[in-house]
């Protein structure tokens, strides 16, 4: 039995995750779900956003379905996402960008770079260490090559013309691509951002460092209708964590207007991770049919609420199973 830890988190995470959970339970009634509380709301109430006991709960799961958490600009608050990614060694962040005439996968190193967590403040400055290691670069390059090999091509996003650490990253990624037999090119990240938006058909799988991948994938959301459409997976050797790319959006929380598609598609990625590609495809197809029928949330120009959109997808999933 697959055990899934469900973390609603903060803001709209508490609205979109229940929708995704209900759909997951409908297609896989054999899955066992249990709730885990982390996030800013918990930190405000208890002084701890995610403690050791909570991490043990997450480690006990076969997969984690995660909503979104608020990260305040408070020096005493440690990012929950960075903590979980580091503690569970979820080194590969995978963000598919799929829509009309777009089929790109952005693979981002997930545990180091500017999100290394090595930071300190001084009276007149604050410092963050950008870490690019051989081990981290090799394993993310190999993971990206496994995705690129059955497709067409690998692009290495970098800023090696300015950053010495990116020289190492490019060297390792290109060597791994040669070893895997994957055609590979390198692009400077600023030019890549623009070209991806203008000519997405040129790209297949893109691998890059932590912050560059974060920014690039957020910008690429423009191609498919916004952040409310983008799912993601965080993959490690032993653990897997699935979440929408968007944040907690406190300005619209509790209003039943958030787009749950990213959360639903993250659930589909969870299904694929466990080899259930048929159910994953059924969920994706159900989302497509609902959108095609004109049922859309406000960010997509429609009037459907979060719950109403989720209910429509659930009905379509049920018809597909019938």
Automatic annotation (TrEMBL):
Pfam families with a match to the protein in the record: Iso_dh
Keywords: Oxidoreductase
Signal peptide: none
Domain Isopropylmalate dehydrogenase-like positions: 3-313
Family: Belongs to the isocitrate and isopropylmalate dehydrogenases family.
Name of this chain's protein: NAD-dependent isocitrate dehydrogenase
UniProt organism field: Methanoculleus caldifontis
């Amino acid at each position: 039995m697959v055990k899934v830890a469900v973390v609603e988190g903060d803001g709209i995470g508490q609205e979109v995750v229940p929708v995704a959970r209900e759909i997951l339970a409908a297609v896989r009634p054999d899955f066992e779900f249990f709730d885990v509380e982390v996030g800013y709301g918990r930190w405000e109430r208890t002084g701890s956003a995610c403690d050791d006991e909570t991490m043990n709960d997450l480690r006990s799961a076969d997969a984690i379905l995660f909503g979104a958490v608020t990260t305040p600009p408070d020096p005493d608050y440690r990012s929950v996402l960075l903590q979980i990614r580091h503690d569970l060694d979820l080194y590969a962040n995978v963000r598919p960008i799929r829509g009309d005439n777009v089929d790109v996968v952005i693979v981002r190193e997930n545990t180091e770079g500017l999100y290394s967590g090595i930071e300190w403040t001084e009276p007149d400055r604050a410092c963050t260490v950008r870490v690019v290691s051989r081990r981290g670069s090799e394993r993310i390059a190999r993971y990206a090559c496994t995705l690129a090999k059955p497709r067409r091509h690998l692009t290495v996003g970098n800023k090696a013309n300015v950053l010495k650490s990116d020289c190492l990253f490019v060297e390792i990624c290109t060597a791994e691509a040669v070893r895997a037999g994957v055609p590979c090119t390198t692009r400077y990240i600023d030019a890549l951002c623009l070209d991806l938006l203008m000519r997405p058909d040129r790209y297949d799988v893109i691998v890059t460092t932590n912050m560059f991948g974060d920014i690039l994938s957020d910008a690429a959301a423009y191609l498919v209708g916004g952040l409310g459409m983008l799912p993601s997976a965080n993959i490690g050797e032993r653990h897997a964590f699935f979440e929408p790319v968007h944040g907690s959006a406190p300005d619209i929380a509790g209003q039943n207007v958030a787009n749950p598609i990213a959360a639903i598609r993250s659930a589909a990625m969870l299904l694929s991770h466990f080899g259930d590609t048929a159910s994953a495809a059924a969920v994706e197809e159900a989302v497509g049919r609902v959108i095609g029928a004109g049922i859309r949330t406000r960010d997509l120009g429609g009037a459907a609420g979060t719950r109403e959109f989720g209910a429509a997808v659930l009905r379509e999933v049920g018809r597909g199973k019938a």
